[in-house]
UniProtKB/TrEMBL annotation:
Purpose of the protein: This protein is a component of the acetyl coenzyme A carboxylase complex; first, biotin carboxylase catalyzes the carboxylation of the carrier protein and then the transcarboxylase transfers the carboxyl group to form malonyl-CoA.
Gene Ontology BP, a term: fatty acid biosynthetic process
Keywords: Biotin, Fatty acid biosynthesis, Fatty acid metabolism, Lipid biosynthesis, Lipid metabolism
Gene label: accB
Protein name: Biotin carboxyl carrier protein of acetyl-CoA carboxylase
Domain Lipoyl-binding: 78-161
Pathway given in the UniProt record: Lipid metabolism; fatty acid biosynthesis
One GO MF term: acetyl-CoA carboxylase activity
Protein source organism: Mordavella massiliensis
Amino acid sequence: MEFENLLKLIQAVSDSELTGLKYEEKGVKLHLTKEKETVMTAVQTVPAGETQQAAAFAPATSFAPAAQTSAASETAGTEEPKMEGNIVTSPLVGTFYAAPAEDAEPFVTVGSQVKKGQTLAIVEAMKLMNEIESDFDGKVAEVLVENGQPVEYGQPLFRIC
């Protein structure tokens, strides 16, 4: 693949809503992935006998990066409201759980007073339970996700004032 064509392909993925692209041609394997408007590129040479294929990944549907969200707001002519307070975000992709067990009380609820380092919830990823701790002292003003809901990396989970 010529360098100019490679640059055009990278730009096309950057400008689109795709989150990834895999492409093989003449022994060269190309894999592009995008995270929050950043494009990462990996190129690998494959043996001459392997088949050529191309596949595109669908865009993430449960959480749009902030840049895409604000661009959509501008086109609609309305300004997206900025959340006040401190936002605790998910450090990984997984499933959000508000309590340590199904029959247990949630770690915190709206109005709960929290301290820095206190466990707020759990995000399960690949059968591992990851405790989500508060980075702030304050009161839980809002829980932004439902129990059992899938969450994305960087997705807001709590608003603490």
